């Protein structure tokens, strides 16, 4: 009886030790998997934007993906989808938006589908393009290149005018004139927004109280160097230089025309 009890206790002890070892091994394996997945999550992916972050398109104004100027926005979508991005543009700058649409190799291009890029300001007013191929019909399976250069962003404008104002701008890319059979074909797209500094020639007398940035979309961000202060432009330099030149011209003209002194009186007077 005592020997049987001793054997039972020994078996129970061996089973407990085996269970403890298995639990410890499972814990180590789980911890290793957690660390590996965390490192993979923290590492930057194969993104096309800055800092390895992708900027996949949204599907409406409210869900537009914010990108910085010089950062590429991407999209893996289907024909018939509306793709939206947003970017900040400041006063005195002339934005340019470029887009590239890559069609599948099986696309025939015979449907007459026309790809179009539109740009809207912070008030969601469509802004016309000064120049650039804003719309183009797809031919074959080659990429479709689009571009739109806006007018110079103004610091202030009359309420009845549709001048571009500083703040968030929206990019919309879509295809029109599609047949039913062409809907749903996979496409990939890239967009990029850049701007050129026009300088004091675009300055106006007045500024907005704040840029037109919707509060519900902080991802739109602001320019890297912040929004313009609103009063200083290089036009002040040209104004000051013009004033100095005008003063020098006045002094020179007076020196040339003042004569050589008093007129001598006639003899015998």
Automatic annotation (TrEMBL):
- Signal sequence region: 1-42
Query: Record's superkingdom?
Result: Bacteria
- Please verify whether the record's keywords include Signal: yes
Instruction: Using the UniProt annotation, give all residue ranges assigned to the region (Disordered).
Output: 45-76
Q: Where is the composition biased (Basic and acidic residues)?
A: 47-56
Chain intervals with Polar residues compositional bias: 60-76
Alphabetically list the UniProt keywords.
Signal
Q: What protein name applies here?
A: Secreted protein
- From which organism does this entry originate? Streptomyces typhae
Give the taxonomic lineage as stored in the record.
Answer: Bacteria, Bacillati, Actinomycetota, Actinomycetes, Kitasatosporales
